[in-house]
Amino acid sequence: MAASGGAVRAEKRVERTKRKRREKEPNALKEEEEEQGDVFAVSAFFLVVVRVQRQLELLARVRHLNVMSLKAYVRDADRLSLVYDFVPGGSLEDVMKRVRSQQVSLSWDTRNRIAAGVAKGLRHLHFECNPRILHCNLKPSNVMLEEGFEPVLADCGVARLIDSGLPDPESSGSLYAAPECYQSNRYTDKCDVYAFGMILGVLLTGKDPADPFFSGESGRGSLARWLRHMQHSGDTKEALDSSIVGEEVDEEEMVMAVRVAIVCLSELPADRPSSDELVAMLAQLHSF
C-alpha cells in the first residue's frame, strides 16, 4: 500500500495495543491482528508536509535478516501508518532492563551475537542498499529481538521523515547521538556507527547511559567518556558487566570488544570505522 509524498513530523511514542483499543495518542507502535490472525506492528505519524513517497518506496524494498521490513504504508488524511511484521521478543532496551534488575541473564555469547547482528544490519543499509539508508535513530528500543535473540533493526530511516531527522535533545535517543549531530545539524553513516558504539557499550557494561552515575565525576559525564577513561587508566576489565565476567569466556575477547566500542565512539567521525569495517572487526574478536 502506498502513500502520497510528504515529510512527517512526530514526537514518537511506542506502545502496543490491540486494534479494538484504539489509542488516542497521535504516534504509537501498535500490535494489530487481521481476521486471519496475522500480527503486525503499526507505527503511526502525523504528516505535515508532502514529499516522502520516494523514501517510503526505498524503505519498502529493504530485505535483510537483521532489518525489519516495511510491509505497507497508508496515508489517511494527515496521518501516516507504517506496517511491519510484529516481533514478539521485545526490544533490547526491555531485555537490558530485565538484566539490570536480575530478572534474566544474558551471556556474553548472546550479547556478542546481538552486536554482530546489529552491525550486519547497518552494513546492509549503508553498503547494500542503493541509495544507502541511514538509520538516524539507532538505540536499544529500536533493536527488536527475534527468537534466539537475533536482532532486527526497527524504524530504519523513519527519522528522516520526521523534521530534521535528528533525535530530540531531550529524548532517550539523544544519549546515542554522535556529537556532530547537534554541532553541525548533519547526519552521516558515521553517526549510526557512533550509536552502535553506545549499544555495544551497553551490552558490555550492562549500564544504562541515562544512569545518574554518569552525571557525577566518577561517571565522567557520559558512558562514552567513562569507557575511554577506564581504558586509559588500565581498568577496562572493571568496566565489564560483572554478571558475564565470571562466565567461562575469554575476558580478553570482551576487552577487545570494549576497544571496538571505544573506536566507534571516537569524537571525530573520520576516526570511526565504517559499518563494513565494523562487521569485520567483530568477526575477528574470536581469533584473539
Automatic annotation (TrEMBL):
Gene3D superfamilies: Transferase(Phosphotransferase) domain 1
PROSITE patterns in alphabetical order: PROTEIN_KINASE_DOM
Presence of keyword Transferase: yes
GO cellular component: membrane
Keywords: Kinase, Receptor, Transferase
Signal sequence bounds: none
Span list, region Disordered: 1-32
Pfam family, one: Pkinase
One Gene Ontology molecular-function label: protein kinase activity
Cross-referenced InterPro entries: Kinase-like_dom_sf, LRR_receptor-like_kinase, Prot_kinase_dom
Keyword Membrane (UniProt): no
UniProt protein name: Inactive leucine-rich repeat receptor-like protein kinase CORYNE
Native source organism of the sequence: Triticum urartu
The organism's taxonomic lineage, starting at the top: Eukaryota, Viridiplantae, Streptophyta, Embryophyta, Tracheophyta
